[in-house]
Automatic annotation (TrEMBL):
GO biological process: ubiquitin-dependent protein catabolic process
Transmembrane segments: none
Organism the protein comes from: Armillaria gallica (Bulbous honey fungus)
Family annotation (PROSITE patterns): ZF_RING_1, ZF_RING_2
Record flagged with keyword ATP-binding: no
Top-level taxon of origin: Eukaryota
Keywords from the named record: Metal-binding, Zinc, Zinc-finger
Protein name (Swiss-Prot/TrEMBL): RING-type domain-containing protein
Coiled coil: none
Lineage: Eukaryota, Fungi, Dikarya, Basidiomycota, Agaricomycotina
Keyword Flavoprotein attached: no
Annotated Low complexity bias: 180-191
Length: 191
């Protein structure tokens, strides 16, 4: 696992650790320690104090303190990627690609279904409108009650109208004009 420095917020370059266990870049922590006054510094993350020089060496110049930091230890981090993490990343990428393909296929199927439903609804609406116009014009007054008693346009279809018409033809309720016409002209026109 690659650590990031809390000071520069980038990947640790030559990492070092404070006594409290926080890891920083060596250059970032050295600059932080050099800015502190006295013989103590503090952790930039948790503010825990730690000594930066041995008290007997207090007379050394401030510029040499970077070489005498007994509290700060060099840390060697394994920056090679974890094989399990790499395998999980690969599996995640495959699953993400599969999900994208499936979602695209589903979106296409849904859009086709929506177009089909819209087309079907417009056809039913056109049928209902044309039947309503025929009934309102008085061409089929005996069926006007059937049309207005239905709750949806799908309940009134030309097939049902034809079946109802044949039943009324067989009952003998035909007027004189229909008796004289041929059998092909006695049927209702199918929409």
């Amino acid at each position: 696992m690659v650590q990031s420095c809390a000071i520069c917020l980038s990947q640790c370059d030559s990492p070092v650790s404070t006594p409290c266990g926080h890891i920083f870049c060596q250059t970032c922590l050295s600059e932080h320690v050099l800015l502190s006054n006295g013989f103590q510094s503090f952790c930039p993350t948790c503010r825990e104090k730690f000594p930066i020089a041995i008290p007997q060496l207090q007379h050394l110049p401030h510029s040499s303190h970077q070489f005498i930091l007994p509290s700060v230890r060099r840390v060697f981090l394994d920056t090679s990627p974890d094989p399990q993490a790499e395998d999980l990343k690969r599996r995640l990428k495959v699953a993400e690609d599969c999900f994208k393909e499936q979602s695209t296929a589903h979106m296409l199927a849904i859009s086709q279904l929506n177009r089909w439903l819209e087309l079907r609804a417009s056809r039913e609406s056109e049928r209902a409108t044309s039947l309503e116009l025929l009934y309102k014009n008085g061409k089929y007054p005996s069926r006007r009650g059937d049309f207005y008693n239905t709750s949806s346009p799908s309940e009134l279809s030309p097939v049902k109208i034809g079946i109802k018409r044949r039943r009324s033809d067989s009952s003998g309720d035909l007027d004189e004009n229909r008796k004289s016409s041929t059998s092909s002209s006695s049927r209702l026109p199918m929409m």
